[in-house]
Amino acid sequence: MKKIEYLKELLDFLEYHNRMAPFPMYDTEYVSAIRKQLEHMDKNINYDELPTVACRHCNSLGLQVDELDNDICMRCGSINEINIFPDYYSYDLFLLNEENEDY
Q1: Which of 16, 33, 48, 70 would be a feasible disulfide site paired with 88, CB 3.0-4.6 Å?
Q2: Would you say residue 103 has pLDDT above 60?
């Protein structure tokens, strides 16, 4: 539920600052896109429990799938080198364990 909570907080922040300024500080199309995304998201799905895919080399979540179904890391450029975690919490635990091993 972190994603939904984050989007709600972001929407409140943007709308507040747009109301308080003499002219909209943030793009109104961007604000309406966030509002539509929140309306579109199913409230019953816990997005933190969905499988999480990360780069095997840099542990980045910034992956894109190209037209040939290759998973490309936008951070380090590796192709089809991924780790699949059962949920976000196991990914977060993996990152904490990696940090502790470095010290």
Answers
A1: 48
A2: no
Q: What is the pLDDT of residues 57-83, one digit of tens each?
A: 999 999 999 999 999 999 999 999 999
Tokens of 13: 């922040």
45 dihedral zone (left: phi>0; alpha: psi -120 to 50; beta): beta
Q: How many domains does the chain have?
A: 2
> What do you get for the CA distance between the two ends of the chain, in Å?
32
Q: Against a cut of 0.85, is the pTM above it? A: no
Give the integer Cα–Cα distance in Å for 5 and 84: 24
Structural domain of residue 22, as residue ranges? 2-40
Tell me the two tokens of residue 102.
Answer: 């470095």
